[in-house]
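Why do we care about 3D structure at all? Because function follows from shape, and shape follows, mostly, from sequence. That is the central idea of this module. The next example makes it concrete: a single protein chain, its amino acid sequence, and then its structure expressed as tokens.
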Amino acid sequence: MHIPDNYLSPATCAVMGAAMLPIWAKSAAKVKAELPRTRLPFLGICAAFSFLIMMFNVPAPGGTTAHAVGGTLIAALVGPWAACIAISVALLIQALLFGDGGLLAFGANCFNMAFVIPFLGYFIYTFCKHRARTERGGLAGLGVAAYLALNMAALCAAIEFGLQPVIARDLAGLPLYCPYPLSISIPGMLLPHLLVAGVAEALFTVGVYAFIRRVSPGTLYEGARQRVPVIYGVMVALVCCSPLGLLAKGSAWGEWSVEEIKGVMFGGKPLGFVPSGMEHGFSLKALLQDYTMTGLPDWAGYVFSALAGGALLVIAFKLLGLFRKNQEPARKA
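And the structure:
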């Protein structure tokens, strides 16, 4: 679901970035007003969870791959506004350091994964939770919310892809950017997420939320015990298991390289050309491109990237908590 650079036109990127600006501003204001300074390190843990789970690619129909995001989980833990900030920062780290998702497409990726997923997921979860009669019912509602929110984000990405052949063509009538119309992009994006990634998102969300509620209820409820080291242990386990994401072969739908796009099937036959906007567009080589490191085998580079990215997110939010003014807004139940 990470849209690379040059798949969307500059105009589309500008519109999506502009749409995110007031959302980021409102999210930052809500976090400052409602999230205690002492909770910011936990927000970093949430961002790290999202970063790490997105590294676990799973095989999907059509020879592609997909992944969970954890947006509904974070929204259930800290609220949708804080989740928006956490996932946005995780996406920024992925784009800058690992080349996962484009810099120009950053606004679009944040709209899909840092806005649609946590806000829609939180709305559906609270709707189900208030009507559930048991804890299991609430967890089931959380799983449904995670599944639906991820697929809605995939639909948004599919629409963004599918509009490109309509709004950006060269003089010969060929698409300048993503060449796939809505009739191709919607099923291409939705099928892997409906069948695979959505299920993974629901299972991860329910499993981690139930685990945190059981071992460290103070993370969720005022006055209960907190066992943050246990949560760090889960993060370490995810880092160690991250090479499992390498087992899924193939690129995610809509994330093909310039070298791959020409041979991607279109209407039963290879596309046969590279859109000029993609071939001659913006390109930035990341420091640890594709979570690899020169001189290390792929699995070791993946572990190092997982460790570096997760640690960077935790440290960044911890430092933010230290430098923020000593104000303690009332914590909501």
